[in-house]
């Protein structure tokens, strides 16, 4: 086994010679230790909208490869009603319409509401649209802004949220993200509702989660990654189809990137090319995900989209004593590609804490040469664990000691991050812990693009 955290003495001496940066930081921040508990069912954030069969759980995500499409989804509780979305560029002139489809599913003894998905295509880039759902019964209105047309110097700001759940801390994280008004779309790294922590995976908690986050995701696209809490595999109650609730409720534009599964896909958004992977689908050689990713990298045109971002749930570089080595087999399969293709940054979740790595790779090992420790590598991505959304399972606080050299900063606090692309060479990254004011950055870094400006960031 390749052990990334087993720094043998020889490896340590070797790394001390090649490592350019100063040692990593384990934050000294002291937080109030409180139990993380879910908001009760009668909480304000779970309120059902007024009106007979009013659409609820409204959410949007990108609906095509370029950013000119949007998938609008919502649930009607009592009867299907209309699957039409009315939309337009002025609030009182929603002159266009698109018709979606409605689906339902059962999970053990739970029956879902009527889940609508409607893809709107060929929108104008960088344009404010108003839209309406629930036509003919209890209509509700929302709006969104499409991203700018993909291009190398288009500024764009992503929010990063992971492992959110529906606790009081989850609400603080989301409120904090909203108070930090720069985020234009959320890159969500998996583990949405944590409904599966309830008896029989009580799918009513999928509904409450979607009502809770509607206040953000009805107005800006959240880009979905599947986590382990999306699997909902429960043979003990006869539920043997993995990802059933997630795939019924959340759509992704996977066909637009020639993927054969909604669990892995890519999109372009402004100056970024985003590849979403599934830690819980087969990824070994010859598997659909492997073959797709192999063909995906050559399609990335850094002259059009300089920033290459990968999302996955289970982190490859993680120095907490939680989920130890869970990302290791995928790392062994795919890390050489990430280095060859100069991925700028990888965002993952799963570990309920925050961590940022140095630019490192660990791809030299060939079973017999002993080169099994991460080394500094300017072609490698920065790995960021942002699984600190605040779900009911609480914080991961136990870290491996000493802090591995590849770990630049780590802290067991809830929060979110912002990846703020300025142009083809520069992006400002900041992590915000929930205890601080919205404008306060607890960890930050200027990213230099690996394709256009591949110089060490610490210099
Ligand atoms: C489902 O089954 C559980 C356990 O038997 C029960 O507590 C719950 O009320 C049932 N829910 C529905 C919707 O029937
Ligand atoms: C959640 O946060 C919002 C906005 O900060 C607040 O209005 C609401 O009361 C909070 N709800 C709960 C249950 O904490
Ligand atoms: C890459 O993108 C640039 C800028 O949009 C374009 O001029 C060029 O033709 C593209 N290259 C390929 C191989 O498609
Ligand atoms: C932290 O994790 C290590 C390794 O798994 C374990 O030996 C230790 O008991 C844990 N410490 C605490 C306080 O849980
Ligand atoms: C790119 O953005 C950075 C940070 O804002 C700025 O310093 C730099 O001059 C910009 N580059 C160009 C070519 O405008
Ligand atoms: Fe997870």
UniProtKB/TrEMBL annotation:
Domain of life where this protein originates: Eukaryota
Enzyme Commission designation: 3.1.3.2
Domain Purple acid phosphatase C-terminal: 380-440
Reaction catalysis annotation: a phosphate monoester + H2O = an alcohol + phosphate
Domain Purple acid phosphatase N-terminal: 55-146
Keyword Hydrolase among record annotations: yes
Enzyme category, top tier: hydrolase
Entry keyword set: Glycoprotein, Hydrolase, Iron, Metal-binding, Signal, Zinc
Official protein name in the record: Purple acid phosphatase
Species: Acorus calamus
Lineage: Eukaryota, Viridiplantae, Streptophyta, Embryophyta, Tracheophyta
């Amino acid at each position: 086994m390749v052990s990334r955290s087993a720094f043998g003495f020889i490896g340590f001496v070797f790394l001390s010679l090649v490592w350019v940066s100063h040692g990593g930081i384990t934050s000294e921040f002291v937080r109030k230790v409180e139990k993380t508990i879910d908001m009760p069912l009668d909480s304000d954030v779970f309120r059902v909208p007024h009106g007979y069969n009013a659409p609820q759980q409204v959410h949007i995500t990108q609906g095509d490869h370029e950013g000119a499409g949007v998938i609008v989804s919502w649930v009607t509780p009592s009867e299907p009603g209309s699957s039409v979305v009315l939309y337009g560029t002025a609030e009182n002139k929603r002159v266009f319409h698109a018709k979606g489809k409605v689906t339902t599913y059962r999970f053990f003894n739970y029956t879902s509401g009527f889940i609508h998905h409607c893809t709107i295509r060929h929108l104008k880039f960088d344009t404010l649209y108003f839209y309406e759902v629930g036509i003919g019964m209890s209509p509700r209105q929302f709006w969104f802004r499409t991203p700018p047309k993909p291009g190398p110097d288009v500024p764009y700001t992503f929010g990063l949220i992971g492992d959110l759940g529906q606790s009081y801390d989850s609400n603080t994280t989301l409120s904090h993200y909203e108070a930090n008004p720069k985020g234009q779309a959320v890159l969500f790294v998996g583990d949405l509702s944590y409904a599966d922590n309830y008896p029989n995976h009580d799918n009513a908690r999928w509904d409450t989660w979607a009502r809770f986050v509607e206040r953000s995701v009805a107005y800006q696209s959240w880009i979905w990654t599947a986590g382990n809490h999306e699997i909902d595999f429960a043979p003990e109650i006869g539920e043997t189809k993995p990802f059933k609730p997630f795939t019924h409720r959340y759509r992704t534009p996977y066909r637009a990137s020639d993927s054969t599964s909604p669990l892995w896909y890519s999109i372009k958004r402004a100056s970024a090319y985003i590849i979403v992977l599934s830690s819980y689908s087969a990824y070994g050689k010859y598997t659909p995900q492997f073959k797709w990713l192999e063909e995906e990298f050559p399609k990335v045109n850094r002259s059009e989209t300089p920033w290459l971002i990968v999302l996955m749930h289970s982190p490859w570089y993680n120095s907490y004593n939680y989920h130890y080595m869970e990302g290791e087999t995928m790392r062994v399969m795919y890390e050489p590609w990430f280095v060859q293709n100069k991925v700028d940054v990888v965002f993952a979740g799963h570990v309920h804490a925050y961590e940022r790595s140095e630019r490192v790779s660990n791809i030299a090992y060939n079973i017999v040469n002993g080169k099994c420790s991460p080394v500094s590598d300017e072609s490698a991505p920065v790995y960021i664990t942002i699984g600190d959304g605040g779900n009911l399972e609480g914080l991961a606080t136990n870290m491996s000691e000493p802090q591995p050299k590849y770990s630049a900063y780590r802290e067991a606090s809830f929060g979110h991050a912002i990846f703020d692309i300025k142009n083809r060479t520069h992006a400002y990254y900041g992590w915000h812990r929930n205890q601080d004011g919205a404008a306060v950055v607890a960890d930050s870094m200027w990213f230099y693009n690996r394709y256009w400006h591949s110089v060490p960031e610490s210099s």
